[in-house]
Amino acid sequence: MIDTVWLDEEKDLLMYIDQTLLPNELRVCSCSDIFDLSAIIKRLAIRGAPAIGVGAAIGLYAAASRFEEESEQGFLYSFTKCAEYVTNARPTAVNLSWAANRMVKCANESLGHGVEHLKSALKAEALKIYNEDIETCKKIGIYGDTLIKDGAGILTHCNAGSLAAVRYGTALAPIYIAAEKGKRIHVYADETRPLLQGARLTVYELCESGIDVTLQCDNMAASLMASGRIDCIFVGADRVAKNGDAANKIGTSGVAIIAKHYGIPFYVCAPFSTIDFSCESGKDIIIEQRDGSEVSTLHYQKRMTHESAKIYNPAFDVTPSELITGIITERGIFKGDEIANQQ
Ligand code: MRU
């Protein structure tokens, strides 16, 4: 398993793998500037809901460790502005605002002992968020593994693995735990148009981990399910509403609809930091719209559609709670209508 984001504690730098370069290049980069941090998240160099949250927390600390403000109030003002700025980088993954708010809360609660103390408190909080992610995802994996039988065929969409979190990932965590236990499993990865997170990232990390994986185009999912190869489906989430509706990478809801038709269990794996209790239902989730060039040009040698084509490019869709067999969290597996009681 790969660590995707981490803190260089000597140099106070956010370290991250630039995911836009995978699978062809594994490049480790660093960041300590708030404008760079926002740009890195926007262009998906750090992506995946938990990784965005942890990356934002560490990046905010790295930036704050360089603040020259001498007064606590000046420091707090600048830090709060930075947190607001980074929160706006992407709208759908709630882990981003969740982590930024935690860092701001920590700064507020640490006032009264000077700026150096504030910096130390923020460092400790960023490391806590990082370590919690590893533990949380491992627990998701342990609960999810109970649903995997030896010899299972498992379908996943997008990348909700190591690269999308700090280490275990969410949707791939049960797969890593099952593999650690010696279960024979075969993963089918949707390529995930238009940005190919499945083809580029899920296949990369599973191959690197020695887990059996087959890649198929998104429009082959129905054929695959009809063939009887798929026993269960695990996907991640960017925001889960109070009623159990779950936003995840575009195409996820289609997979859930097909799974319902074929009677295949469809599980969403998400830490509690991805549940937004202020969102009553999926209708309240803001869906990020991204540039049309991702559809027309990015992964093609030449533009592949007419130059005046209008392009629809929502980055996420919402799977209704009733299509989700269970939401696997670090606290157990819940039905959508049980989520509201967990607040
Ligand atoms: O646009 P991305 O690549 O950040 O979208 C990622 C996903 O949709 C993941 O499935 C989700 O963030 C969960 S990651 C554990």
Quick recap:
This protein has 343 residues and is α/β, with parallel strands linked by helices. It contains ten helices and 14 strands.
Task: Summarize the structure in words.
This protein is α/β, with parallel strands linked by helices and 343 residues long. It is built from 10 helices and 14 strands. It has helices at residues 34-42, 49-64, 72-87, 94-109, 115-145, 173-180, 197-208, 221-226, 252-262, 293-296; strands at 5-8, 13-17, 28-31, 153-156, 186-190, 213-216, 232-235, 239-241, 246-249, 266-269, 275-276, 316-319, 326-329, 332-334. Strands 6-5-4-7-10-13-14 form a 7-stranded mixed β-sheet. Strands 11-8-9-12 form a 4-stranded mixed β-sheet, with helices on one face. The chain has a 3-stranded antiparallel β-sheet with strand order 1-2-3. Helix 2 runs parallel beside helix 4 (94-109) and helix 4 runs antiparallel to helix 5 (115-145). The radius of gyration is 20 Å and the shape is globular. The two termini are 31 Å apart. Bound molecules: 5-S-methyl-1-O-phosphono-5-thio-D-ribulose. The site of 5-S-methyl-1-O-phosphono-5-thio-D-ribulose has 19 residues, from helix 2 and strand 9.
